[in-house]
Amino acid sequence: AEEGEEAEDAEEAEEAEEGDAPSEWYAPYIERAVEMGIVPDSLLSDYSASVTLAEFCELAVGLYEFMTEAEIEERDYFDDTDNEAVEKLAGLGIVDGDGTGNFNPDRELTREAAIALMYNVLTRGLGIELEDADPDFDDADDIAEWFSDRIGAMQAAGFVRGDGSGSFDPTGGYERQMGIAALVLFYDRILELNEEAEEAEEAEEAEEAEEADEDGEGEDDEDDDDEEADEDEEEDEDGEDDGEE
């Protein structure tokens, strides 16, 4: 009987371990997120569970503080939560409540709400400028009006690509593993945008330098022409003097 119980316990433990493991596609991103130190230990399990609003705030704060290399000092408070990450993002004006003093921290996040929150982190928190754009998904009409412009801007900047079939699934669930992987992908895209901006700036500076060189060569040619004209004029004057003599 004891052997049977031990075997059953081992089987249950194995099933629990498999249930805690992230999907194969998300695993490398979760590994990177752990190396970056942006995921709290409390979210390193039950990866297929729906992420809550407060949990996603914890992930967002992890990325923000990793990129700024500083802890958020600002705080704002709600009546229904004492989650520090929520208070930090509220202090920065990245999240707000429901107008009654509550935040609803345990509300399960949808895809559109998650992307809209990250838009606020990037623009209001990190100061990244994103151009306004309408979302270009097959189901764009299903996106809530108050999220639409932010999701369009995120798509235009390459932060959002949809589900691979042309749709976004705005009201679809957002799993923990999806949220963790998304932050790593957002980070990579930010680095790409910074690199693109640096390359554009270098190209602009090179173009300005080339134009300056061309202007300088033109001025040199004009100076040479002026010198030649002066020499010719002097020669003519000398010729006239010799004729008078």
Layout of SSEs?
Layout: H1 2-20, H2 27-36, H3 53-68, H4 84-91, H5 111-125, H6 145-156, H7 176-244
Helix pairs in contact: 2-7, 3-4, 3-5, 3-7, 5-6
Question: How would you portray this structure in words?
Answer:
By secondary structure, the protein is an all-alpha fold. Helices cover 61% and strands 0% of the residues. The chain is built from 7 helices and no strands. Helix 2 packs across helix 7, helix 3 packs parallel to helix 7 (176-244) and helix 5 (111-125) crosses helix 6. The longest helix has 69 residues, at 176-244. The radius of gyration is 31 Å and the shape is elongated. The N and C termini lie far apart (139 Å).
